[in-house]
Design a protein that fits this description.
InterPro entries: BPD_transp_1_N, MetI-like, MetI-like_sf. The protein is mainly alpha-helical. The protein has 15 helices and no strands. It is globular and about 85 Å long.
Protein backbone atom coordinates (compact mmCIF):
# COMPACT_ATOMS: atom_id res chain seq x y z
CA UNK A 1 0.00 0.00 0.00
CA UNK A 2 2.90 2.35 0.73
CA UNK A 3 4.31 1.68 -2.73
CA UNK A 4 0.94 2.39 -4.38
CA UNK A 5 0.49 5.53 -2.28
CA UNK A 6 3.86 6.88 -3.37
CA UNK A 7 3.08 6.22 -7.02
CA UNK A 8 -0.31 7.97 -6.68
CA UNK A 9 1.36 10.91 -4.96
CA UNK A 10 3.89 11.18 -7.78
CA UNK A 11 1.05 11.09 -10.32
CA UNK A 12 -0.79 13.91 -8.56
CA UNK A 13 2.40 16.00 -8.44
CA UNK A 14 3.00 15.46 -12.17
CA UNK A 15 -0.60 16.44 -12.98
CA UNK A 16 -0.37 19.65 -10.93
CA UNK A 17 2.91 20.70 -12.57
CA UNK A 18 1.61 19.76 -16.01
CA UNK A 19 -1.61 21.72 -15.46
CA UNK A 20 0.45 24.81 -14.62
CA UNK A 21 2.49 24.38 -17.81
CA UNK A 22 -0.65 23.84 -19.91
CA UNK A 23 -2.31 26.92 -18.46
CA UNK A 24 0.84 29.00 -18.93
CA UNK A 25 1.04 28.02 -22.60
CA UNK A 26 -1.78 30.39 -23.54
CA UNK A 27 0.05 33.32 -21.99
CA UNK A 28 3.42 32.36 -23.48
CA UNK A 29 2.03 32.41 -27.01
CA UNK A 30 2.61 35.59 -29.05
CA UNK A 31 -0.02 38.25 -28.49
CA UNK A 32 -2.25 39.01 -25.53
CA UNK A 33 -5.06 36.67 -24.40
CA UNK A 34 -7.75 39.23 -25.18
CA UNK A 35 -6.54 39.45 -28.78
CA UNK A 36 -7.02 35.70 -29.10
CA UNK A 37 -10.48 36.05 -27.62
CA UNK A 38 -11.59 38.64 -30.19
CA UNK A 39 -10.12 36.48 -33.00
CA UNK A 40 -8.42 39.38 -34.79
CA UNK A 41 -11.51 41.58 -34.98
CA UNK A 42 -11.09 45.32 -34.41
CA UNK A 43 -12.83 46.34 -31.21
CA UNK A 44 -12.86 49.41 -29.04
CA UNK A 45 -10.73 49.74 -25.88
CA UNK A 46 -13.95 49.57 -23.86
CA UNK A 47 -14.79 46.17 -25.33
CA UNK A 48 -11.25 44.92 -24.62
CA UNK A 49 -11.56 46.15 -21.04
CA UNK A 50 -14.90 44.34 -20.70
CA UNK A 51 -13.35 41.13 -22.05
CA UNK A 52 -10.45 41.40 -19.60
CA UNK A 53 -12.90 41.89 -16.74
CA UNK A 54 -15.11 38.99 -17.89
CA UNK A 55 -12.22 36.52 -18.07
CA UNK A 56 -10.39 37.89 -15.02
CA UNK A 57 -7.35 38.90 -17.08
CA UNK A 58 -6.66 41.82 -14.76
CA UNK A 59 -6.08 39.42 -11.85
CA UNK A 60 -2.54 38.28 -11.01
CA UNK A 61 -1.39 35.25 -13.03
CA UNK A 62 -1.35 32.82 -10.08
CA UNK A 63 -4.88 33.86 -9.09
CA UNK A 64 -6.09 33.19 -12.63
CA UNK A 65 -4.36 29.79 -12.59
CA UNK A 66 -5.93 28.92 -9.22
CA UNK A 67 -9.44 29.79 -10.41
CA UNK A 68 -8.90 27.80 -13.62
CA UNK A 69 -7.58 24.81 -11.68
CA UNK A 70 -10.58 24.82 -9.33
CA UNK A 71 -12.92 24.91 -12.34
CA UNK A 72 -11.05 21.99 -13.94
CA UNK A 73 -11.31 19.91 -10.77
CA UNK A 74 -15.06 20.56 -10.85
CA UNK A 75 -15.27 19.38 -14.46
CA UNK A 76 -15.51 22.84 -16.00
CA UNK A 77 -12.95 23.17 -18.80
CA UNK A 78 -14.32 26.49 -20.06
CA UNK A 79 -15.98 27.36 -23.36
CA UNK A 80 -14.72 27.06 -26.89
CA UNK A 81 -13.59 30.41 -28.27
CA UNK A 82 -14.81 29.44 -31.74
CA UNK A 83 -18.10 27.60 -31.23
CA UNK A 84 -18.92 28.83 -27.70
CA UNK A 85 -19.72 25.23 -26.77
CA UNK A 86 -18.91 23.78 -23.38
CA UNK A 87 -15.42 22.30 -23.76
CA UNK A 88 -16.13 19.43 -21.37
CA UNK A 89 -19.08 18.33 -23.50
CA UNK A 90 -17.15 18.88 -26.72
CA UNK A 91 -14.16 16.78 -25.61
CA UNK A 92 -16.30 14.10 -23.93
CA UNK A 93 -18.14 13.49 -27.20
CA UNK A 94 -14.83 12.83 -28.97
CA UNK A 95 -13.06 10.72 -26.34
CA UNK A 96 -14.83 7.36 -27.01
CA UNK A 97 -13.49 7.15 -30.58
CA UNK A 98 -9.94 7.92 -29.48
CA UNK A 99 -10.14 5.46 -26.56
CA UNK A 100 -11.43 2.70 -28.86
CA UNK A 101 -8.65 3.43 -31.34
CA UNK A 102 -5.88 3.62 -28.71
CA UNK A 103 -7.20 0.56 -26.85
CA UNK A 104 -7.40 -1.48 -30.07
CA UNK A 105 -3.87 -0.40 -31.04
CA UNK A 106 -2.56 -1.14 -27.52
CA UNK A 107 -4.00 -4.67 -27.69
CA UNK A 108 -2.27 -5.23 -31.04
CA UNK A 109 1.03 -3.96 -29.64
CA UNK A 110 0.89 -6.26 -26.60
CA UNK A 111 -0.27 -9.40 -28.42
CA UNK A 112 1.76 -9.17 -31.61
CA UNK A 113 4.76 -7.31 -30.18
CA UNK A 114 5.39 -9.78 -27.36
CA UNK A 115 4.25 -12.81 -29.37
CA UNK A 116 6.49 -12.12 -32.36
CA UNK A 117 9.41 -11.19 -30.10
CA UNK A 118 9.17 -14.42 -28.10
CA UNK A 119 8.86 -16.54 -31.23
CA UNK A 120 11.81 -14.79 -32.86
CA UNK A 121 13.93 -15.40 -29.75
CA UNK A 122 13.03 -19.07 -29.43
CA UNK A 123 12.93 -19.99 -33.12
CA UNK A 124 16.02 -18.96 -35.02
CA UNK A 125 16.11 -19.15 -38.79
CA UNK A 126 13.79 -17.76 -41.45
CA UNK A 127 11.06 -16.73 -39.00
CA UNK A 128 13.50 -14.71 -36.91
CA UNK A 129 14.82 -12.96 -40.02
CA UNK A 130 11.26 -12.10 -41.06
CA UNK A 131 10.50 -10.61 -37.63
CA UNK A 132 13.75 -8.60 -37.67
CA UNK A 133 12.99 -7.33 -41.18
CA UNK A 134 9.43 -6.45 -40.15
CA UNK A 135 10.66 -4.55 -37.09
CA UNK A 136 13.12 -2.60 -39.23
CA UNK A 137 10.28 -1.79 -41.60
CA UNK A 138 8.15 -0.61 -38.68
CA UNK A 139 10.93 1.74 -37.57
CA UNK A 140 11.36 3.17 -41.07
CA UNK A 141 7.78 3.57 -42.35
CA UNK A 142 6.00 6.74 -41.16
CA UNK A 143 2.59 6.17 -39.57
CA UNK A 144 0.78 8.35 -42.10
CA UNK A 145 2.33 6.45 -45.02
CA UNK A 146 1.37 3.11 -43.43
CA UNK A 147 -2.19 4.41 -43.13
CA UNK A 148 -2.28 5.35 -46.83
CA UNK A 149 -0.93 1.93 -47.87
CA UNK A 150 -3.49 0.09 -45.74
CA UNK A 151 -6.29 2.27 -47.08
CA UNK A 152 -5.21 1.62 -50.67
CA UNK A 153 -4.78 -2.17 -50.35
CA UNK A 154 -7.45 -3.28 -47.89
CA UNK A 155 -9.91 -0.43 -48.35
CA UNK A 156 -9.96 0.82 -51.93
CA UNK A 157 -8.74 -2.31 -53.77
CA UNK A 158 -9.99 -5.26 -51.72
CA UNK A 159 -12.86 -3.46 -50.00
CA UNK A 160 -12.44 -5.46 -46.80
CA UNK A 161 -12.54 -2.50 -44.43
CA UNK A 162 -14.00 1.04 -44.54
CA UNK A 163 -11.53 3.89 -44.89
CA UNK A 164 -13.49 6.64 -43.14
CA UNK A 165 -15.84 7.13 -40.21
CA UNK A 166 -15.93 5.58 -36.76
CA UNK A 167 -18.94 3.30 -37.07
CA UNK A 168 -21.91 2.76 -34.75
CA UNK A 169 -22.07 0.11 -32.05
CA UNK A 170 -19.27 -2.06 -30.73
CA UNK A 171 -18.69 -4.50 -33.61
CA UNK A 172 -19.22 -1.92 -36.35
CA UNK A 173 -16.83 0.44 -34.59
CA UNK A 174 -14.17 -2.29 -34.35
CA UNK A 175 -14.61 -2.96 -38.07
CA UNK A 176 -14.17 0.71 -38.92
CA UNK A 177 -11.17 1.10 -36.60
CA UNK A 178 -9.25 -2.02 -37.69
CA UNK A 179 -7.14 -0.31 -40.35
CA UNK A 180 -6.53 2.83 -38.25
CA UNK A 181 -5.51 0.68 -35.25
CA UNK A 182 -3.09 -1.40 -37.34
CA UNK A 183 -1.51 1.74 -38.78
CA UNK A 184 -1.25 3.30 -35.32
CA UNK A 185 0.15 0.13 -33.72
CA UNK A 186 2.64 -0.77 -36.47
CA UNK A 187 5.63 1.17 -35.08
CA UNK A 188 4.86 0.02 -31.53
CA UNK A 189 4.68 -3.64 -32.57
CA UNK A 190 8.08 -3.28 -34.24
CA UNK A 191 9.68 -1.73 -31.14
CA UNK A 192 8.15 -4.21 -28.67
CA UNK A 193 9.02 -7.22 -30.85
CA UNK A 194 12.64 -6.10 -31.13
CA UNK A 195 13.01 -5.41 -27.39
CA UNK A 196 11.23 -8.66 -26.44
CA UNK A 197 13.47 -10.70 -28.71
CA UNK A 198 16.60 -9.13 -27.21
CA UNK A 199 15.39 -9.45 -23.60
CA UNK A 200 14.39 -13.11 -23.98
CA UNK A 201 17.67 -13.93 -25.69
CA UNK A 202 19.64 -12.34 -22.84
CA UNK A 203 17.56 -14.11 -20.22
CA UNK A 204 18.08 -17.47 -21.93
CA UNK A 205 21.78 -17.21 -21.16
CA UNK A 206 21.35 -16.13 -17.53
CA UNK A 207 22.69 -18.28 -14.71
CA UNK A 208 19.37 -19.18 -13.11
CA UNK A 209 17.93 -20.36 -16.43
CA UNK A 210 20.98 -22.52 -17.13
CA UNK A 211 20.80 -23.98 -13.62
CA UNK A 212 17.08 -24.73 -13.99
CA UNK A 213 17.74 -26.62 -17.22
CA UNK A 214 20.65 -28.47 -15.57
CA UNK A 215 18.33 -29.59 -12.74
CA UNK A 216 16.04 -31.19 -15.29
CA UNK A 217 13.19 -28.66 -15.20
CA UNK A 218 11.08 -29.06 -18.37
CA UNK A 219 12.08 -26.58 -21.06
CA UNK A 220 8.55 -25.20 -21.47
CA UNK A 221 8.34 -24.50 -17.73
CA UNK A 222 11.74 -22.83 -17.79
CA UNK A 223 10.67 -20.76 -20.77
CA UNK A 224 7.46 -19.41 -19.19
CA UNK A 225 8.36 -19.29 -15.50
CA UNK A 226 11.96 -18.11 -15.70
CA UNK A 227 12.88 -16.79 -19.13
CA UNK A 228 9.80 -14.90 -20.32
CA UNK A 229 8.65 -13.63 -16.94
CA UNK A 230 12.07 -12.27 -15.97
CA UNK A 231 12.51 -10.64 -19.37
CA UNK A 232 9.24 -8.69 -19.06
CA UNK A 233 10.63 -5.76 -17.02
CA UNK A 234 12.30 -3.94 -19.95
CA UNK A 235 9.46 -5.04 -22.23
CA UNK A 236 6.86 -3.59 -19.85
CA UNK A 237 8.70 -0.26 -19.84
CA UNK A 238 8.70 -0.12 -23.63
CA UNK A 239 5.05 -1.16 -23.86
CA UNK A 240 4.08 1.53 -21.37
CA UNK A 241 5.93 4.17 -23.37
CA UNK A 242 4.38 3.04 -26.64
CA UNK A 243 0.83 2.91 -25.27
CA UNK A 244 1.20 6.27 -23.53
CA UNK A 245 2.28 7.78 -26.84
CA UNK A 246 -0.71 6.43 -28.74
CA UNK A 247 -2.98 9.33 -27.80
CA UNK A 248 -0.34 11.83 -28.91
CA UNK A 249 0.18 10.12 -32.28
CA UNK A 250 -3.48 9.25 -32.87
CA UNK A 251 -4.19 12.67 -34.41
CA UNK A 252 -2.30 11.63 -37.58
CA UNK A 253 -4.41 8.51 -38.00
CA UNK A 254 -7.65 10.27 -37.09
CA UNK A 255 -6.91 12.93 -39.69
CA UNK A 256 -6.09 10.32 -42.36
CA UNK A 257 -9.23 8.24 -41.72
CA UNK A 258 -11.45 11.26 -40.90
CA UNK A 259 -12.30 9.94 -37.44
CA UNK A 260 -14.17 12.09 -34.92
CA UNK A 261 -11.65 11.71 -32.08
CA UNK A 262 -9.86 14.20 -29.88
CA UNK A 263 -6.79 14.04 -32.14
CA UNK A 264 -8.60 15.57 -35.11
CA UNK A 265 -10.27 18.03 -32.72
CA UNK A 266 -6.82 19.03 -31.46
CA UNK A 267 -5.56 19.69 -34.99
CA UNK A 268 -8.56 21.87 -35.82
CA UNK A 269 -8.33 23.73 -32.51
CA UNK A 270 -4.63 24.50 -32.96
CA UNK A 271 -5.26 25.77 -36.48
CA UNK A 272 -8.05 28.04 -35.23
CA UNK A 273 -6.21 28.99 -32.01
CA UNK A 274 -9.06 27.70 -29.86
CA UNK A 275 -6.90 27.59 -26.73
CA UNK A 276 -9.58 26.44 -24.30
CA UNK A 277 -10.01 23.22 -26.31
CA UNK A 278 -6.25 22.80 -26.76
CA UNK A 279 -5.72 23.14 -23.02
CA UNK A 280 -8.43 20.57 -22.28
CA UNK A 281 -7.03 17.99 -24.73
CA UNK A 282 -3.50 18.56 -23.42
CA UNK A 283 -4.74 17.83 -19.89
CA UNK A 284 -6.47 14.66 -21.08
CA UNK A 285 -3.25 13.47 -22.73
CA UNK A 286 -1.17 14.24 -19.64
CA UNK A 287 -3.68 12.39 -17.46
CA UNK A 288 -3.65 9.37 -19.79
CA UNK A 289 0.15 9.34 -19.88
CA UNK A 290 0.31 9.51 -16.07
CA UNK A 291 -2.21 6.70 -15.61
CA UNK A 292 -0.34 4.44 -18.04
CA UNK A 293 2.93 5.09 -16.23
CA UNK A 294 1.22 4.31 -12.91
CA UNK A 295 -0.03 1.01 -14.30
CA UNK A 296 3.48 0.20 -15.55
CA UNK A 297 4.94 0.90 -12.09
CA UNK A 298 2.36 -1.39 -10.50
CA UNK A 299 3.07 -4.10 -13.06
CA UNK A 300 6.76 -3.91 -12.11
CA UNK A 301 5.91 -5.00 -8.58
CA UNK A 302 3.72 -7.83 -9.89
CA UNK A 303 6.33 -9.14 -12.35
CA UNK A 304 9.22 -8.80 -9.91
CA UNK A 305 8.34 -8.25 -6.21
CA UNK A 306 11.96 -7.23 -5.60
CA UNK A 307 11.13 -3.89 -7.24
CA UNK A 308 8.52 -3.13 -4.58
CA UNK A 309 10.77 -4.38 -1.78
CA UNK A 310 13.78 -2.38 -2.97
CA UNK A 311 11.66 0.78 -3.06
CA UNK A 312 10.51 0.14 0.48
CA UNK A 313 14.05 -0.50 1.73
CA UNK A 314 15.33 2.65 0.01
CA UNK A 315 12.53 4.69 1.59
CA UNK A 316 13.49 3.46 5.07
Amino acid sequence: MIYVGKRLGALVAVLVVSSFIVFSGMYLAPGSPEQFLVQGRTVSPEVLAAIRAQYGLDDPFLIRYWHWLIDVLQGDLGRSLITQQDVTTLVAARIPTTLYLAGFAALLIVVFGIGLGVLAATRSGVFEKIVVFGSNLGFAVPTFFAALVLMFIFGSNLGWFPVSGSGQGFLDRLWHLTLPAIALAFPGIAVVARITRTAVREEQGSEHVVMAIARGVPKQLVLWRHTIRNSMLPVTTVIGTQIAGLLASAFVIEYAFTLDGIGSLLVNSVQKKDFAVVQAIALVMVLAFGIVNLIVDLLYSVIDPRVRLSKGVAAR
